[in-house]
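Workshop exercise sheet. Pairs work together: one partner reads the sequence aloud, the other fills in the structure field after running the prediction. Swap roles for the next sheet.
Pair: D.N. / O.F.
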Amino acid sequence: METVKIDRTKEWTVEDYLLLGEMNTPCQLINGELIMSPAPTPYHQFISGNLYDILKTESKRNSGVVFYSPIDLYIDKNNVLQPDLIYVSKENKNIVTNRGIEGVPDLVVEIISPSNVFTDRNTKKKKYQNIKVKEYWIVDPGNKTLEIYTSTQEDQDTPYLYLAEEGLVTSTVLPQLQFNLKEIF
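Structure field:
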């Protein structure tokens, strides 16, 4: 296995990022900076798996497709993000390429960890809002909450739907989707 040395003296681009090849360490390109993170915790993976199962069932019903991390979401020449989960509708399947997701997905889910709270709640949220992702979910395992931001809401900084520990989750992107928040924690 090769050791990768990160050059922090330059602004990274998608071309630089692609030269890294497949890696075991999750990394993202955010605003021209290569960000590497430790592997998710087992609890993070448990939540991600539960959400994946729910979204997978719904995607089969409407011929969409759901992906789990790591998968690259290409935003622009200085941003390649790796959300925990991505849903792409039947109508947008053309954005799924051999390289990753090259276009605006319908739904993005980030499960926050102590090391990425600021990035997921601020930097990545703004990126998703700027490219008009229809729904962005922030799952907070520590507080057992789910926040939903939509591209159509007027106040982009206040969750459209905020659930604490229990409640029925619904989606504007997947209108038939309904599950109790307890199912994911």
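Discussion prompt: Residues 42-62 form the longest helix (21 residues). What would you look at next?
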